[in-house]
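Dear colleague,

Thank you for sharing your sequence with our group. We've completed the structure prediction you requested, and as agreed, I am returning the results in plain text so they can be pasted directly into your records. Please verify that the sequence below matches your submission; if there's any discrepancy, let me know and we will rerun it promptly.
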Amino acid sequence: MSYRFEAGSRLIYIGKQYLLKNCSSCASDLLELWELGERSNPLVLSRKELEQFYLSGELYFSDKVRGKEESAPALRFDSAVLSEEEEATTKRRLAYIDEILAREPEALTTHTLSPIIAEVSLKIGDPAPPHWVTVIRWLHRAGYTDRDVNSLIPRTSRGNRSKRLPQEVSDLVLQHIETDYLTKERRTVREVWKRIARRVDLENEHRPPDLRLPVPSYETLRTIISTIDPPTRTEGRYGKRAAEREHRPILGQPVTSRALERVEIDHTQLDLYVVDEDSREPLGRPYITSAIDHYTRALTGFYISFSPPSTLSVMQCLRVAILPKAMLLKSYKEVECDWDVYGVPETLVIDNGKEFHSRDFDTAMTELGVQVQYSPPREPWYKGIIERHFRTLNTALLHQQKGSTYGGDYKRSDYNPSENAVISFDALVKSLFVWGVDVYQQRQHKGITRAPARAWADAATQYPPTLGKSVRDVIIALSQSAKRSIRGFGIKSQKMAIWEILLF
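Please find the predicted structure tokens below.
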């Protein structure tokens, strides 16, 4: 469950329960805390003050009777105006598209839809499951157009409507679309139509005149084929890679409509050698794990270490990304601007590294309510935002420092980056904070034509970021677990005997 600092939320502050309300006579950044069961004047606090109290543990969210949360509009239709047969048909269609929308298959093809259709047909007792192309047409009419369930109502003979094809002919048409049109032979629509006409003629040879099937017109076939979504058509006729190449969004990026709807996280080894602060001996090139919000391009968090990417580095990065950062920035007084970016991502886009398949990571994402989306192998465009951010970090900051590897170009010369390195690890971390908050966040981003900090501020006002119930819950969720046996002296961990555990 996620929570927001917005009107209607209930909070526990210093042991008392409060209801959060907008302050009508105050600045837009201020909120009123009304103590439940009391008639005293409300506390008026800014969002920054609420964030600080949340971080200190003095304030956390309450699960009791919270205000209404936003939800997707329900699928509804007026059954009063439908016959029993129409209502049953509409509910049958709805059962199929609901299950497909819930599973979110990567593509709408016979391979992805047929197993789902088979399961639904068994579940609802449907003796005649629909063809997968038919289900795609239902999805276009209801699932992808404002979830309009009324469009699933069967089109009967009300009004001036043309007569529909018999079910046998419709099934035959769909069968030939799959076996003749959506194939690598790439037959034309007219060739497919001729095959359908011959098939109908053969069927009619064994039928009496009054039961013969009509031959669908060429235009009818074209209309049915036009309802198949373009990626499915391209994949069937040219292959999966061609479909991905032709129909993926520009620069390989999906469209988002709000902050934290999609956050990309990844690691890279920095193009810079670091030295020991005392001996000045080179220590190597550290790794950085960073997270970027797709909608605002805001840097949500990062973690730097000499250890290769691991579950620990992912958890540490997410802890920085999710929690408010006011207390963190107190350790870096060189940073001048605010870093107001925080919140639980709706979807976290990751690669297939083993650190993203650990039990601790899976448990953390489940507890925080984060949907995990794995990027396909050998498809760097799928996480293009974070990949470009790493390039910008290297070229705009690190390639200007002594000890830079310049992306490997130094190998063509006598230059040795480790011998020229001068920056210490602590100095590098400070530089990353200053550059990330004061430079990257404040400069106009070409991808969104404005600064990430400004984009985040506007987006957070319209759709406040979500948090865990308490800072304690977030820290525990993003911690690593270990099994230990309890002995007479307590437990043993990292060669130390622990006989008492203090819960924070």
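Summary note from our side: The chain has a mean pLDDT of 82.

Kind regards,
the structure core
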